[in-house]
Amino acid sequence: MKIIKIFSTFIFVFIASEAFADATAYPNKPIKIVVSFTPGGTTDILSREVATQLSARWKVPVIVENKPGAAGNLGTEIVGRSVADGYTLLTSSIGPISINPTLFKNLAVSPQKSLQPVALLGEIPSVLVVPSNTGVTSWKDFLAYTKANKDALSYSSTGIGTGSHLFGFLFLQKTNMEAIHIPYKGAEATRDLVAGRVSFMFATAPSVVQLIKAGQLSPIAISSKKRISALPNTPTLKELGVDLAATTWFGIFAPTGINPEILQKLNATIMDILMQPEMNKKLAAIGVEPVQMNASEFANYLQNDFTMWAPIVQASGAKPE
Q1: In tens digits, what is the pLDDT along the chain, a chain of 321 residues?
Q2: Parallel/antiparallel/unpaired status of strands 115-131 and 247-255
Q3: Do the Cβ atoms of 259 and 116 come closer than 8 Å?
């Protein structure tokens, strides 16, 4: 019996020391970051910025793979079922993590159970944008435009139940406007907006700042509590008398069960990357506000976010595609 106890203790110590060794050596092979959406969107932009910096620091390849599908659930499922060794990560956002658990009755993988929050990349306002060919450039213009076209208004989103959909839903509630919701797959929503096939959209700032600067879209208002340096002349909805102030967020996740030391190393490194002056400047230029949080704080942040959005999803009547 004593021999068995000693042997069991040895096995435990061996396994613990192996885990510690893995954490100390991490990373020593390529890391894959799965992105839940199509290339060109905010999630993709942020993932590639972070991947480049991680690769430069750790001297290992950090590969970004876009896995759009099922309103972001595909990426969640791929990473949620992966080995929790820190070499497969997920970049996701408000839709798949905070909204989909209410929107979908039977998810293959639960974000709350199968994913470990690693790092909040930033909070990002949405921008109410219209095609430049409408000639609408101000809130006054927008109100006149919507009044003149009230029977033909439409707004695009990156999919049913996504942040862009629910921001549009809340906006219509607050302004007593009516418009048809047209869901797209990821960045296709902004492409059709630029082409003038839809009337307006609530798009994340990083996904439209360059289109605004290129004169293809006109910004009317932003959803955050204060103006952003990327669009200093664009007023907030609050300034315009619309009682709506909310932002979306983007973050990195790992499969549940990741070694706590690897989790801490990932969080600390990513937070340091985001706070570097050059990166901070780059993020501010596209409308991203980095937020310093450890992994535990990020987990609490997500729980509060889920609690806030659940009743809004139910009120919207959104049904999965």
Answers
A1: 544 444 444 444 444 444 444 678 999 999 999 999 888 888 898 999 999 999 999 999 999 999 988 888 999 999 999 999 999 999 999 889 999 999 888 899 999 999 999 999 988 899 999 999 999 999 999 999 999 999 999 999 988 888 899 999 999 999 999 999 999 877 789 999 999 999 999 998 988 999 999 999 999 999 999 999 899 999 999 999 999 988 889 999 999 999 999 999 999 999 999 999 999 888 888 888 888 999 999 999 999 999 988 998 888 887 776
A2: antiparallel
A3: no
> CA 94 → CA 40, 221, 250, 307, 308, distances in Å?
17, 21, 7, 12, 11
Angle at Cα 232 formed by Cα 227 and Cα 212, nearest 5°?
110
Other CB atoms within a 10 A radius of the CB of residue 172 amount to: 16
DSSP state of 80: H
Q: What is the pTM of this model?
A: 0.79
Rg, the chain, Cα only: 21
Sorted by where each starts, the structural domains of the chain and their CATH numbers stand as: 2-123+249-316 (3.40.190.150), 125-222 (3.40.190.10)
Q: Which run of H or of E encompasses 92? A: strand 88-93
Q: b/e map of 290-303 (b: 16 or more CB within 10 Å)?
A: bbebebeebeebbe
